[in-house]
Amino acid sequence: MSHLRYAGLPFEEQREAFLAIVSADPLVGDALTRARALALPDWLVVSGALYNSVWNHLTGKPPGYGIKDVDLFYFDDSDLSYEAEDAVIRRAAAHFEGLPLPVEVRNQARVHLWYPVKFGRECPRYVSSSESVSYFASKTHAVGVRYDADGALELVAPFGLDDVFSFRITPNRALDNQRTHEAKGRRAREYWPEIEVVPW
């Protein structure tokens, strides 16, 4: 099963493979280059566009297959108003114009303000974009990439990469996110039937 060729390897080998695959993907590469130029504080391209690109690469699917958007996090606690975030979202929309997928931009310093309204339960007040990734409903999805100050790709993967390379969606019980875990698992299996969804 060649799609599992990186499963079980040491983290450093998986990290190299992951960064090589996502940076070579035309959609992700373009998104990362534009995100770097946008220069938001503590920015991070996260989640689906990354691990979906890896799954596409390993199963011979075309770039962009099954990816619905690009998630771009940033962290700015200097102004927690909706208006400040909305201004950034509008600026980003113009900046990413022409990218084949929409870019969802969210200030992780504000999540604790709207999360209880949307999901009916509390979430922590995050201190960075990286910290928020560790609260995703599935450990598999907790990946982020950005350029560091020297122009090298930096990986955020609090739970490692073995779930991604093993085509296994594993629950993260840091928050009560069972419904999100199951919904994302169902959607992923429609596009990549190789995937195993670990029950909550």
What keyword list fits this structure?
7 strands, alpha/beta, 8 helices, globular, single chain, 200 residues, five-stranded mixed beta sheet
Task: Characterise this structure.
The radius of gyration is 16 Å and the shape is globular. With 200 residues, the protein is of the alpha/beta class. The protein is built from eight helices and seven strands. The protein is 42% helix and 12% strand. The chain has helices spanning 11-24, 26-38, 48-59, 82-95, 111-119, 129-133, 162-165, 178-191; strands at residues 44-46, 70-74, 103-107, 144-147, 153-156, 168-169, 196-197. The strands form two sheets. A five-stranded mixed sheet has the order 3-2-1-4-5. It has one domain.
Any chance you could write out the topology, listing elements then pairs?
Blueprint: H1 11-24, H2 26-38, E1 44-46, H3 48-59, E2 70-74, H4 82-95, E3 103-107, H5 111-119, H6 129-133, E4 144-147, E5 153-156, H7 162-165, E6 168-169, H8 178-191, E7 196-197
Major sheet characteristics: 5 strands, mixed
Low-confidence stretches: none
What Rg is obtained from the alpha carbons, in whole angstroms? 16 Å
% residues in beta strands:
5-15%
Distance between the termini: 26 Å
Overall form:
globular
The SSE order reads HHEHEHEHHEEHEHE
What can be said about this structure in brief?
This protein is an alpha/beta fold. The protein has one domain.
